[in-house]
Amino acid sequence: MKFASLGSGSRGNATIIEKNDTCVLIDCGFSLKETSRRLARLGKTPEDIDAILITHEHGDHVRGAPMFAKKHGTELWMTEGTFHNYRYFEGYSPHFIGVGKPFEIRDIEVRPVAVPHDAAEPCQFLLSDGDINFGVLTDLGKITQPVIEHFIRCDALLLECNHDLEMLHTGSYPASLIQRVGGDFGHLNNQQSADFLASIDHSWLQHLAIAHVSEKNNCMNKAKKALISVLHCPEEYIDVADQELGLDWRHIQ
To answer: What pTM, to 2 d.p., does this model score?
Structure first.
């Protein structure tokens, strides 16, 4: 298996995973034109994508999905709550998924995992080829026991490090937005992500990429420092899924 990021942050998110001839996107938060451009950067075309898995209905994760599916005939997979709370899906017939109920897209098994986030029926995904597990875990306000249980053994992980608590509370955000971002249905801060890594068997991790990093309320040094305190790894071991540049292909053995 291999994975890459088209980009990650508040202005758009998309992750690509490939196994043999199976290629799926998790989220499609960029415009149709921008998604195609970013795929080309990774040596892929829209026609290579077999399916798009949607985590939730926020625009930075779903903005480009309807037009992409319409133009290229790509399958859409999402929860019913996500479908009914994004009006641009009207007229589409997606595959509905149930959290905790695995399904297969050709060579890839997908397990949706429920997460606490301020959306209708959000989930994150664990993907497997039977031997290798790749997890995407962003857009959740706290780590729950089911999240730990599902992600306890990942060979590669894309993990949210959205904000530094001190930067969030001393920054320019109004109190209401600080409460939303830092609350139980918001986004993970650096320390929460570090604590999560401490709670799983991170000895399996071949690749760790931090994602959904706030441009105003975090910095790479703070995010990496928090994770290094748990992993005791060199700084260069931790990848970053950048907003503009994404992350190039990483192969999972």
So the answer is: 0.96
